[in-house]
Design goal:
1 helix; about 15% helix; mainly beta; single chain; 7 strands
Length: about 120
């Protein structure tokens, strides 16, 4: 009886477990802390599960760079947004994403730099 109860609890945890996972950022393009020779044309966030981008703020030197985020886009593991033409500088990205599977919001920050062509 005790063993059967233990098996039932473990089975329930296996079935329920994935529902409690949160969308976790696996990587970005450009990568965090990248030193780029040329400005990227887009920014991509890769998640471990489908997510919907809620907020994406791009700043350089304390100034916000406008970036269009399609909040009605379907949830996906890979989310790409187009970037305007960016100048040399260090850019901070602040993002927030919703996981439709469990309704949780995850967020984070990272930066990348455009250093320009080698001299």
């Amino acid at each position: 009886m005790r063993k059967a109860r233990l098996v039932a609890v473990v089975a329930a945890m296996v079935v329920i477990g994935p529902a409690f996972g949160h969308a976790r950022l696996l990587g970005t393009s450009p990568p965090a802390d990248a030193q780029l020779q040329a400005a990227p044309k887009s920014l991509t966030l890769n998640f471990n599960e489908n997510a919907r981008l809620a907020i994406l703020t791009l700043t350089v030197g304390g100034m916000v760079i406008p970036v269009a985020v399609d909040r009605s886009a379907p949830a996906a593991r890979e989310i790409t947004v187009s970037l305007p033409v960016l100048a040399v500088g260090t850019y901070q990205v602040q993002w927030s994403a919703l996981s439709p599977a469990d309704g949780h919001i995850t967020k984070g920050t990272f930066s990348f730099s455009i250093v320009g062509p080698p001299r």
